[in-house]
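Reopening: structure tokens for the 2-acetamido-2-deoxy-beta-D-glucopyranose complex, inputs below.
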Amino acid sequence: MASAWWPCLALALFSSLAASGFPRSPLRLLGKRSLPEGLVDGIEIYSTKINCKVTSRFAHNVITTRAVNRADKAKEIFFEAELPKTGFITNFTLTIDGVTYPGNIKEKEVAKKQYEKAVSQGKTAGLVKASGRKLEKFTVSVNVAAGSKVTFELTYEELLKRHKGKYEMYLKIHPKQLVKHFEIDVHIFEPQGISTLDAEASFITNDLLGSALTKSFSGQKGHVSFKPSLDQQRSCPTCTDSLLNGDFTITYDVNRESPGDVQIVNGYFVHFFAPQGLPVVPKNVVFVIDVSGSMSGRKIQQTRDALLKILEDVKKDDYLNFILFSGDVTTWKDQLVQATPENLQEARTFVKNIRDQGATNINDALLRAIHMLNKAQEEHVVPERSTSIIIMLTDGDANTGESRPEKIQENVRNAIEGKFPLYNLGFGRNMDYSFLERMALENHGLARRIYEDSDADLQLQGFYEEVANPLLTSVQVEYPDNAIQDLTQNNYQHFYDGSEIVVAGRLVDEDMNNFKADVKGHGALSDLLYTKEVDVKETEKALKEQDYIFGNFIERLWAYLTIEQLLEKRKNAQGEEKENLTAQALDLSLKYHFVTPLTSMVVTKPEDNEDQTAIADKPGEDAEARSAIPSTAYQVSYQPPQNPYYYVDGDPHFIIQVPEKDDAICFNIDEDPGMVLSLIQDPVTGLSVNGQIIGDTRDSSDSNTTKTYFGKLGITNAQMDFRIEVTTEKITLWNGAVPTTLSWLDTVMVTQDGLSVTINRKKNMVISFGQGVTFVVVLHPVWKKADFLGFYVVDSHRMSAQTHGLLGQFFHPFDFEVSDIHPGSDPTKPDAIMVVKNHQLTVTRGSQKDYRKDTSMGVKVNCWFVHNNGEGLIDGVHTDYIVSSLF
Ligand SMILES: *[C@@H]1O[C@H](CO)[C@@H](O)[C@H](O)[C@H]1NC(C)=O
Ligand SMILES: *[C@@H]1O[C@H](CO)[C@@H](O)[C@H](O)[C@H]1NC(C)=O
Ligand SMILES: *[C@@H]1O[C@H](CO)[C@@H](O)[C@H](O)[C@H]1NC(C)=O
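Re-run output (same inputs, fresh job):
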């Protein structure tokens, strides 16, 4: 396949965020404050930036979206981006409240296990699916706590391919709400110099965009910026919804005074070749058209319309014929005829009378076409310097005559013998597209989908335009022997007007001075040889002076092209060869961090390589074998950061999160300093946690109420004969009778037999008893001398159903109902009736803070406050939980 004429040089991106419909918080009824603009369902997207750097056609795109959950409760925030099917994702990171979850590329099989595990544990799964004709939609959702901020950053790279004389980038945008800082910023650097640059938006005329859109180019640099103010984003002057919804398209081309250009950086080179001003090589075209029963109706009508349009474009030096196939194969003429006005008139009449009928015999139709072209060349019916093409259109699978795909492929391959290209057009979705693709690829052509839609005739006609003007045939790009290695494809059957040939490779000797490239091809009138010589040091120096380009882009471009070609070759490979190609493509994907059909992106929690939280991957071709719209392209699973949790912190405030309700319950226990309370007691696992209360020692002369906190915690694992005492000054571990003392001033991790204790200096410590039990102790450095402790249960799923204690009793699922929300004694805090554990209680809306991530500020958690030491909510009364000692 000539990479030079892949038509999809689209780079599209669509960015939006949306909040899901979580149950509405009761507080919402009270209309706490008027909503600021740009807030949809409590989510404010305050910034979206699409940053593209294109250097020598290689595009590096970063989309960054920042949002904050201004709602009173956790919300699921969705991030969506549309990117071209030909692009490779290279990075994705999530940052939640300052904690970054980075993406790593892994082999698909490895990542798949982790993905399946995540899904089996009920973690949210996101997807990337095909979207429209050229795009894939990447979607991920995260659950974001009230007041929290989240940043999504997606990076992808793509080589823009020249198509009908232009490089084109689509940025599909759809922010779904007004965004305070919305910006598209595109910098293009082209060493050959930019000859044209344009940008336009499908959703509004450029005059109305006014100052929001700027575009400029000069010499080698081009810049496009689109930065609409809030007012410019409004769909009308008083509207609060956004008119940004559609394609933002940037097109450009480079100077073509020279037929080609070579660029070299750090031992890698790329060679672009696109000569201008050559006469078109006459072509001999056989259209092989499926007229089987399934084509009936609109499809056959659109095919007729397209062929009539194509006949208008056929040049008088071209030769043509039509072969129609159903169960039988019929031809318009016995042999190819020249496109004289009389013949074209006759062809129109023939096309208008095409009717559908019967079954599908692809094999015989193609063999007839190949035979006809071979014979025309041999018998000199067609001009000596002409070139041949078969364009086959089908909407279904072979079902009569030879119908085994492998056999058809073999027959066609043996008949064509590499002499001319076969283009297969798959109409609609009801066929084995991968078969069409494999067959076209092994005969130097390519397959294209024609989407069953009102513009199908235009798609067919558009495809014909791409192949209508061959300027060169049998193109060979050659470099001096032994000077180059790891070369990408360097021979092409055709060079078509408006496209470009791109070859990349490595210099064997990085210090070579002169680089020479020869391009040979057959033109309409003569054979041509283009020679290009460049001074390696000079071209390298010129490129390196461009400080804003990323230094190794030519190496990445080479890797991108190599992977793309290996994956394509792999489609027709078998056995060991296929394994070999797979291994090479996988190797490069991992090395250069590309999400390809062989790799997945795994988003991991920081400092925790075991706990994978999100996965993105691109599917293999199998997934798209039989559907018009290739199915799943990436898969993402994400573990919400907010598992059910239970904690006690502050005064002491107990917080019980109830995930089924997306809400929380809280209560205080007022006891005298010195008392010890049972927090967790599990007779089955032998785990217990007790906490000792201390008083606030600050001067409190104006009040005789003493605040109380936890100052000491005792954690016991009886089965392991293990104890930990945590005070605000030190941490003591007992393994049997042997104590180890650690300080809050250390950053240290202790592991043994499934137990792990990590101290994060002056902040918190994390204690895990194997998988399924994890506690976090937070150190609050509030007072000068005496600090206090918070205790969080972040994972309790391995604890038994018999667990008890002030926190432990809530580890089992339980339900509550809140009704009759009414004003309470504090106007900002409504009261309500709660029914829980067969008690009816009056509760008050309040909030507490979660200090797990941010020990100084905390994150606000709204909850229903149960009065009188949790009376009615906790089993028994609070004094039942007083124990005699920490252990
Ligand atoms: C991925 O993006 C993050 C955030 O910008 C960055 O820190 C990291 O280095 C990137 N990873 C790669 C491999 O480029
Ligand atoms: C596999 O690749 C190696 C080079 O990496 C090559 O030497 C070998 O011949 C290849 N084998 C096959 C079956 O293609
Ligand atoms: C101190 O506490 C007691 C008992 O709780 C209460 O009766 C008294 O009024 C309080 N004194 C002041 C000054 O608040």
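The chain is about 15% helix and 40% strand. The first strand starts at residue 15 and ends at 19. Marking as resolved unless the reporter disagrees.
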